[in-house]
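User: Second chain of the day. Same drill as before.
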Amino acid sequence: MGATWDGKGVNFALFSAFATRVELCLFNADGTRELERIELPEYTDEIWHGYLPDAGPDVVYGYRVYGPYEPQRGHRFNPNKLLLDPYAKEIIGEIQWNPALFGYQLESEDDLTFDERDSAPFMPKARVANETFDRRNSNKPAVLWGHTILYEAHVKGFTQLHPDVSQHLRGTYAGLSEPKVIQYIKDLGVTSVELLPIHAFFDDDYLLDKGLRNYWGYNTLGFFAPTERYSASGKISEFKEMVTRFHEAGLEVILDVVYNHTAEGNERGPTLSFRGIDNHTYYMLMPDNPRYYINDTGTGNTFDLRHTRTIQLVMDSLRYWARDMQVDGFRFDLATVLGRETDGFNSAGLFMDAVGQDPTLSKVKLIAEPWDCGPGGYQVGGFPPGWAEWNDRFRDTVREYWKGDEGTLPKFASRLAGSSDLFNHRGRRPWASINFVTAHDGFTLNDVVSYNDKHNEANGEGNQDGNSNNQSWNCGVEGPTDDKNILDLRERQKRNLLATLLLSQGSPMILAGDEFGRSQNGNNNAYCQDNEISWLNWEKIDEAGKSLIDFTKRVIDLRDASHLLHNARFYTGEFDEETGTKDVTWLTPDATEMSEEQWDDPLALCMGILFDSRSAKHLTHLKGEPDVLLLITNSYNDVVMFTLPEVPGGKDWTLELDTNQNPTKSRTFKAGEQYEVTGRSLLLFSLLRPTPLKTMS
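Assistant: Same format as last time:
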């Protein structure tokens, strides 16, 4: 499928079940002038194809597809519209919005008319790619899920203001692969960089009219081509070089991908590719009136993963990125759509089964955003084994707890322990929960503790866009302030949120820039802000930001140092008769085990979590000395005196972390001693040289 160069010529192949004729259109190098039209001579198994001898890389082309224009039957063929190849590996140019892009007469009252204007002058074009590349024998890092720490970043936003990146490389794949950029990410301690969409996408006309752009990129049209706007060279080799350099540093590259819809919108949208190639196959249409689209994505259309050719397209795309481009995994936007069948979401549906048995894709990281806008669309915990899922309940509960909301302690405890209520089934492991407190969509970490309300006026939608339920708290003043007490509290709250994220069971994801307190000035929906609202400003990192970077590194080091903080199994809290221990014990401030009555107390906001690796349930995971940790959290607004518990076989406790202070050296405390836990703070203690129990060798 697509355009394939074999060294002597190029083979062109395009699927369309209902077309009557397909023309290959060749253009000059910059795509501004159509040179020739060649009818594809062969039609085999619903694939139109032909071989062009003596052609090679850099041939610029598009398609014109003939067939019925019958929207009432789901067919929207119009050969006046130049169409992008769905398998194009390089796409040049941007959409120039013009009425000619629409298959119907845009000036008419409906989409039933037929438009004869040529759209080619206003369309981007495909280009045959030269796919040769020397990877220097670099291997994929293959980071185990249990050790994975994700770092969500934007290719342009990460480097656009970076002082160590040359001006002409800023905002590009080449800029992101600069040695100092990669070294910063490596030194932070994360393992896997999750990039916002880089598949070819385009700006909506209504955004351009307001002087804005589609910054996030959730508007895909080309599932094989890296977007040209992030490329300094315009060649796919630049992206491959970026991945290679990340791999050489031991870092994984995860792509945020959008296979749930395309940039063509609803029945009133433009004809750019799929709609004009085979609308009836590629999109979910209303069964009783296929003129209209099912809109389970909220974007106007829904890609139809019930059809074998659509599944083939997505599978071919995923394999291409995993094999040829060597990426390490995928985060699927609105992933519930991928499992949608006629009767709703099915975790054992066609696409899920296809991925699960694929020898390549079953071995890469698969991350679902487990919801969409359709019926039954919320599916957190509902994806099959082998998948990880964004856990928005972790985000909401952790924010509620650190605000000090009453009655949140039981939920908070569950999220700390890996959300077993959601994921402990079918042999799934704690890593299946992708824990996050912030992401690209919503407030940054700084804004979670600085704003009660969203401030999205810059988006030009009257502050009506974005989620109003942010579970945020401004600590007393909305936005910037000079009040030292409020600033100190905000810094501590940032540390509390980051520490909770990194010390909880599951797979943590940090939003790039949160490690130094980046702000978007209260904008919680900056999807259209391709400017300093969204870009990371490296030269404005103050002393508090530098301190937060050091804190983040410290907590990641603590997480890495003990398997108890990224355990391979769910904790049970069951008593082990052999060793006389529990793998986890939930403690009150007086060091007694939490009772049902205390769990039900809405005013309970402080607890301790005692992890003990000496439980027989965890012997198979031990290396070296046994490990006992005590995690204390206090979201009450005042000091709580916490008694450090007596532990069989244990001696002194060592303070490893206190979000209220920055200790320069270790401090030890006796069991039974009381520790003054500051209001709204988190602490981590380790037990000094615990004695192995009777079943341990």
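The first strand starts at residue 2 and ends at 5.

User: Great, on to the next one.
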